[in-house]
């Protein structure tokens, strides 16, 4: 497990990541172009340094009281079939899981309950939201105004 530190902030989140699978700056740029929005600097740092993986089930997302489960990265599905790669909102796999997604909602992770962690893009920036997987209306709860703030805002369960 590797501890996630972004912008010098120790988020307390620990991640089991796919070894040796790192995106290039060009792959990130190509993804941003296809998405139609620039990824926030802290999320790019996350992709270049950690590139997603399975989280240690110790960090609770408040106020949904769910455990942070997976964080998606830019890698091919063949790298590890247990981790979902970062995909554009219109991807069939995402549509099967969560229904039709608006183009400004990028799934970046999952809660242990199956709820989606997503970045919602606006002209002035992003917000991190949790979307209930059982809600056909895609109602969401805003949990942070940056990826770093989202990770740092989780509450770590007491260690034994």
UniProtKB/TrEMBL annotation:
InterPro entries: Knr4/Smi1-like_dom (IPR018958), Knr4/Smi1-like_sf (IPR037883). SMART domains: SMI1_KNR4. Pfam families: SMI1_KNR4. Residues 22-153 form the Knr4/Smi1-like domain. It comes from the Bacteria. This is SMI1/KNR4 family protein. The lineage of its organism: Bacteria, Pseudomonadati, Bacteroidota, Chitinophagia, Chitinophagales.
């Amino acid at each position: 497990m590797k501890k996630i530190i972004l912008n010098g902030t120790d988020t307390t989140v620990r991640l089991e990541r796919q070894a040796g699978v790192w995106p290039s700056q060009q792959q990130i740029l190509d993804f941003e172009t296809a998405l139609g929005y620039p990824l926030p600097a802290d999320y790019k740092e996350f992709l270049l340094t950690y590139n997603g993986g399975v989280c240690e089930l110790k960090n609770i997302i408040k106020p949904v009281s769910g455990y942070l489960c997976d964080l998606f990265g830019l890698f091919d599905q063949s790298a590890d079939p247990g981790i979902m790669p970062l995909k554009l909102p219109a991807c069939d796999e995402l549509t099967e899981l969560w229904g039709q997604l608006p183009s400004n909602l990028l799934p970046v992770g999952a809660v242990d309950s199956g709820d989606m962690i997503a970045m919602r893009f606006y002209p002035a920036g992003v917000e991190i939201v949790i979307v209930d997987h059982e809600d056909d209306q895609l109602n969401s709860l805003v949990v942070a105004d940056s990826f770093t703030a989202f990770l740092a805002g989780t509450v770590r369960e007491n260690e034994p």
